[in-house]
């Protein structure tokens, strides 16, 4: 049954012209939470191969813009409202990301998306903590890149620190939901944390843990499909 479901979403993505089955995860989240609106500026972190960029660009229309960032080179996508950058999210200056969206430090992005995941090792705790480090990076960047009342979607692997992460997002957003889209593989521990309506200039960086904080952000992160 799991194999049939995987084949279904893969075939649907190919039929509809999307670059990966991951599009159906974002589409389900958006349809339930109404994240994306015409004219929005969207930052997509870990965007390769580009299906979330494709979907977001359709939802925001010609007056919006999507800026996609990934370590990997991304095959260009059609559309004047799409800008793709190659690089490490932790190293790219705010000014570069905002300029790509034609936004300023006072305007910022309306929505930040992240389907980033570490290249898995097979060790559950290691993969979980590496996933938490990526989530910390996304939250830190939201501190200066996401506008007040803006929305966040990010993927996290469930584990010992997952609920602590969810609680931290609760402190920074007016409404928070955790979701596991239908298109997620049955064997995956991925969950998506949806934060709606960022509180006014909420502090989005995670506090250090008693052990001195999570491990460094892995350099080999990639988009989970």
Q: What descriptive keywords fit this protein?
A:
6 helices; disordered C terminus; two-stranded antiparallel ribbon; Rossmann fold
Q: What layout of secondary structure does this protein have?
A:
Layout: H1 2-16, H2 23-33, E1 41-45, H3 51-60, E2 65-70, E3 82-86, H4 94-100, E4 109-114, E5 116-117, H5 124-145, E6 146-157, H6 162-172, E7 173-179, E8 190-198, E9 222-223
Parallel strand pairs: 1-2, 1-4, 2-3, 4-6
Antiparallel strand pairs: 5-9, 6-8, 7-8
Biggest β-sheet strands, sense, barrel: 7 strands, mixed
The H-and-E topology, N to C, reads as: HHEHEEHEEHEHEEE
The end-to-end span amounts to 18 Å
Q: What level of helicity do the residues show?
A: 25-40%
| CATH homolog superfamily | Vaccinia Virus protein VP39
Q: Supply the number of helical segments.
A: 6
Q: Strands of the biggest beta sheet: in what spatial order? A: 3-2-1-4-6-8-7
Provide the number of structural domains: 1
How many strands in all? Answer: 9
From the spread of the alpha carbons, the general shape counts as globular
| Average pLDDT, all residues | 88
Alpha carbon gyration radius: 16 Å
State which percent range the strand residues make up: 15-25%
Classified by CATH, the class is Alpha Beta
Low-confidence stretches: 206-225
**Name of the CATH architecture:** 3-Layer(aba) Sandwich
CATH topology, by name, is: Rossmann fold
The assigned structural class equals alpha/beta
């Amino acid at each position: 049954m799991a194999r049939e479901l995987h084949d279904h979403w893969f075939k649907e993505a190919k039929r509809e012209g999307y670059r990966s089955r991951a599009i159906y995860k974002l589409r389900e989240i958006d349809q339930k939470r109404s994240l994306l609106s015409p004219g929005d500026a969207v930052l997509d972190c870990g965007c390769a191969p580009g299906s979330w960029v494709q979907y977001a660009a359709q939802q925001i229309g010609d007056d919006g813009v999507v800026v996609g960032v990934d370590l990997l080179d991304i095959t260009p996508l059609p559309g004047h409202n799409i800008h793709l950058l190659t690089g490490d999210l932790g190293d790219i200056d705010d000014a570069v990301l905002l300029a790509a969206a034609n936004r300023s430090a006072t305007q910022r992005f309306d929505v930040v998306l992240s389907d980033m995941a570490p290249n898995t090792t097979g060790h559950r705790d290691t993969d979980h903590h590496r996933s938490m480090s990526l989530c910390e990076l996304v939250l830190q960047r939201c501190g200066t890149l996401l506008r007040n009342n803006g929305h966040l979607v990010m993927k996290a692997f469930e584990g010992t620190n997952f609920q602590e992460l969810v609680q931290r997002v609760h402190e920074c957003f007016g409404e928070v939901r955790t979701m596991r889209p239908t298109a997620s593989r049955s064997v995956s521990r991925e969950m998506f944390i949806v934060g709606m309506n960022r509180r006014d200039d909420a502090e989005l960086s995670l506090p250090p843990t008693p052990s001195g904080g999570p491990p460094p952000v892995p350099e080999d992160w990639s988009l989970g499909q």
